Amino acid sequence: MSQQTLPPGVIGLHTLPSDHHDGPWDSMIVPPGTKERLLGTALLVLRQGRLLSGLSGAPHGLIVLAGPPGTGKTTLAQGLAQAAALKMAKRGATTLVEVNPHAFPSDMLGESQRAVSRLFLDTLPEIAARRPHTIVLIDEVEALAVSRSSASFETNPVDVHRATDAVLAGLDQLRTQCPNLVLVVTTNFLSAVDEAVLSRADLVMTTKLPDEETIEKIVASSLNELAGQWTDLMPLAQDADLHAELAKGLRGLDGRRVRKTVLAALTVRTEVALDPTQLTADDLRCATQFAQDG
């Protein structure tokens, strides 16, 4: 389906598993058990959702990833979709649907509610009917499901409440109509998401800034990726003492900034930018200092 024919609010439709989506899941460095719990939650719904739909506490298929920017929420969500699709591949393909929540708010009273209702009651069920498994990704879900208890009355509170009400009704309808659909949403501000939405979640997981040990692993991973392109860099990728030293200087940064700092070391000297095989430990130390000062 071309970009021009995508339904309103949908910015991507992908058939999984796909080679194009390999990588993020394995490269993510997260606390032990994180990936297993995410994958288990998704697979339970994808495989057993219809059988569980008759329970009084039936799953909604909703996973919430919350945490500061740069802590890997979206990457985890995208990687989860591919990992789940690989597990389910023998039973058919999986559709990954990416939704832009900012496509729905409107200054017209009631328009947000109607747009959100169409997404949950029409668009997603129609897409889900095409393949046996469906995973939907919505970043910054607070744009759709604003906490009604804290919504500002300066910004059309009636439409805000109606849009959130539409999300709640949509979640309940999806549970009934599409019990094998998994909805993964992310938010930088958990307190901004409506409490009734969170109560419907099967899993709320908080991503945190990496500790020093995790930063060491991210540095090592980033250098190994560079060494995959330029084998002369393998000694740097294998220097555990250097990784530990750099990690101390990178404390407090998110995982994305840590990886970008390693990449930025290639720009410290123009000769290294032209020939990355000339990268040195001092270049990495310099980039780390820049990151501290920046």
TrEMBL record:
This is AAA family ATPase. Residues 59-211 form the AAA+ ATPase domain. The lineage of its organism: Bacteria, Bacillati, Actinomycetota, Actinomycetes, Kitasatosporales. SMART domains: AAA (SM00382). It holds the Pfam family AAA. Gene3D superfamilies: P-loop containing nucleotide triphosphate hydrolases. InterPro entries: AAA+_ATPase, ATPase_AAA_core, ATPase_AAA_CS, P-loop_NTPase, Pch2-like. Belongs to the AAA ATPase family. Keywords: ATP-binding, Nucleotide-binding. PANTHER family: PACHYTENE CHECKPOINT PROTEIN 2, PACHYTENE CHECKPOINT PROTEIN 2 HOMOLOG.
